[in-house]
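Practice problem 4.
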């Protein structure tokens, strides 16, 4: 009875799985995301913590046996500043935030981003902890003075539940951790001008660490004090584990708010002179890494086009089915985030566009062009990450059968979709079970999946579309401005 809790950006989910990896009880509730002027995006730690309490209590009340452990995962990046008791010293700054756009552009011009990338393999973007922290160090230094720890969502929740100040090695990878030594690279911290704030970085916990619910956490969740709690990896690597990614070269596509593309590797090798984008994420297994290319906009783009066209998400599949591959010549670039793009390139000025429109263009063509452009972005990311093996997929986007088939066609390979949507929570539970010494049968868990095949006749259309996407991207990058 391990309860997996996935604290997403806009949704918190709690799930319990049976021995075959099938969810038997689940609950979810929405988190509040505050979009403010100037590209600022923030969340309230207490509200997020309340969502955790809500879903855990709901699940626990439905279980036939007592909860035996809690396994946490959730969103990464951003900056969650807390004091010694775990109270927020200011609202959490989301990974979606764009207040540091200009700072990031300056770091790119000054070579700071390239210096950090050479040392850690992680590219920086406006919503990463380094950029946000440096911005606040200039604009709100008193806030950093009051803080005891500068961390992330999962460790912020862990602190309030257990009293422990720590961070999972996966979160700590962003962007200052040397993935080989699993220690902070002091020169990377210095390059960002944050050496004087070094004490705010919690030391990464040993892999598969187990913590205990304290009295305050027990009261909040309605569970017994002393209950085992694990925290991490965060949602990207947790999803890879939960989906069944195990062999080097295998990858996972997460079509969620973020379009996250990851490939498993046993070598922390990268081209130090390459595009300073993406990240190397440490996994719970020593010597294993995920080369991650998390593009900024996935299903968030679909939500935007639904609002724009006055349609429902349920209308997406019929619209995609009514427009052939190629969207009648309509093309799109999917860069809708206010903070630009972070993978497989970083540009805070990146913006979306549609081309090839005419008076005959309808909703179906606009929707298909956007969905195809997101799939092209995924291919761009996977080419940079080195995908060579099986491909898995998860996230709200793969609930659309038509969109999933577009991804398969653009990527030119079948896609394995786990039968249970709670893939992040699955990964957290599998990690917790290993840490507690009672691992599940991972092969049995992986059997609960379906495979989406591509249509061979569409490959040529998508090859031309991808070439057009690359040409359009190259032309647009010369026009973007802050």
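Answer key:
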């Amino acid at each position: 009875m391990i309860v997996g809790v996935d604290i997403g950006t806009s949704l918190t989910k709690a799930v319990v799985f049976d021995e075959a990896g099938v969810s038997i009880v689940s609950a979810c509730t929405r988190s509040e995301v505050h979009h403010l002027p100037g590209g600022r995006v923030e969340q309230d730690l207490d509200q997020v913590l309340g969502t955790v309490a809500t879903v855990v209590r709901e699940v626990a009340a439905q279980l036939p046996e007592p909860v035996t452990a809690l396994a946490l995962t959730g969103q990464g990046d951003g900056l969650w500043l807390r004091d010694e008791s775990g109270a927020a010293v200011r609202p959490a700054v989301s990974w979606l935030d764009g207040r540091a756009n200009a700072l990031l552009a300056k770091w790119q011009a000054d070579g700071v981003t390239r210096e950090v990338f050479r040392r850690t393999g992680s590219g920086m973007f406006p919503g990463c902890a380094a950029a946000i922290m440096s911005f606040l160090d200039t604009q709100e230094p008193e806030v950093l003075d009051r803080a005891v720890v500068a961390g992330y969502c999962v460790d912020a929740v862990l602190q309030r539940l257990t009293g422990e100040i720590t961070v999972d090695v996966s979160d700590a990878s962003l962007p200052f951790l040397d993935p080989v030594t699993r220690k902070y690279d002091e020169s990377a911290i210095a390059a960002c001008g944050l050496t004087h704030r070094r004490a705010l970085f919690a030391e990464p916990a040993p892999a598969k660490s187990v913590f205990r619910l304290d009295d305050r956490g027990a009261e909040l969740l309605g569970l017994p004090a002393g209950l085992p709690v694990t925290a991490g990896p965060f949602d990207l690597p947790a999803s890879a584990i939960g989906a069944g990614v195990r062999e080097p070269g295998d990858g996972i596509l997460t079509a969620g708010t973020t379009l996250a593309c990851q490939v498993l590797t046993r070598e922390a090798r990268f081209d130090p002179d390459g595009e300073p984008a993406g990240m190397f994420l440490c996994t719970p297994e020593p010597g294993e890494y995920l080369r991650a290319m998390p593009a900024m906009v996935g299903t968030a783009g679909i939500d935007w086009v639904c609002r724009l066209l006055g349609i429902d998400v349920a209308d997406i599949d019929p619209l995609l089915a009514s427009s052939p591959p190629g969207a009648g010549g309509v093309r799109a670039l999917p860069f809708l985030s206010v903070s630009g793009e972070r993978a497989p390139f970083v540009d805070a000025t990146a913006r979306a566009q549609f081309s090839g429109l005419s008076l005959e263009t309808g909703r179906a063509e606009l929707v298909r062009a956007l969905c195809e452009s997101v799939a092209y972005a995924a291919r761009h990311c996977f080419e940079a990450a080195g995908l060579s093996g099986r491909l898995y997929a998860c996230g709200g986007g793969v609930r659309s059968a038509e969109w999933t088939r577009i991804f398969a066609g653009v990527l030119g390979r079948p896609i394995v979709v786990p039968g249970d949507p709670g893939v992040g929570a699955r990964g957290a539970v599998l990690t917790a079970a290993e840490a507690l010494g009672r691992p599940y049968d991972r092969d049995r868990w992986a059997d609960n999946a379906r495979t989406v095949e591509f249509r061979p006749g569409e490959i040529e259309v998508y090859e031309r579309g991808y070439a057009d996407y690359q040409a359009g991207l190259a032309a647009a990058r010369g026009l973007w401005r802050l």
